[in-house]
Write a structure and sequence with these properties.
Helices cover 39% and strands 21% of the residues. The chain is an alpha/beta fold. It has a single domain, classed as Rossmann fold, CATH 3.40.50. It has a 6-stranded mixed sheet, with helices on both faces. Helix 1 crosses helix 4. The longest helix has 18 residues. The model has no long low-confidence stretch (mean pLDDT 97).
């Protein structure tokens, strides 16, 4: 998987995805860093075929309205400690990766993966 981790999520997720063999970047790696506007994140996602990983529901609206970003992983855990979030991703990494071969929009909460059509 190729991923772009949004500003609301810890940069440490990049390292977890990379350790698992995926290509991940954070908005901090972009020219405007965490000030990168959503439309530019969407453009990068399309251009580089990256899955946007975010807590920002504006990307859901954009995804349904214009098919952007390329693919979307919405984190809907509410407030969660970074260590707990990392464990959640590590526990579900293989399932997430496999599911993106079939789905373009996946949501993760504290207990489930939700596959949207």
């Amino acid at each position: 998987m190729k991923l772009l981790i949004d500003a609301h999520l810890p940069r440490r997720l990049v390292y977890r995805f990379t350790e698992a063999g995926h290509d991940a970047i954070h908005t901090l790696d972009l020219n405007l860093k965490n000030r990168t506007p959503d439309h530019e994140i969407n453009a990068i996602s399309i251009q580089e075929t990256r899955i946007v990983v975010t807590k920002d529901e504006d990307f859901v609206t954009s995804f349904y309205a214009s098919g952007r970003p390329f693919k979307l992983l919405l984190v809907s855990t509410g407030n969660i400690a970074n260590n707990d979030l990392e464990r959640l991703f590590l526990k579900n990494m293989d399932r997430i990766s496999a599911a993106f071969s079939e789905y373009s929009f996946i949501e993760i909460d504290r207990t489930n993966l939700i596959f949207h059509t």
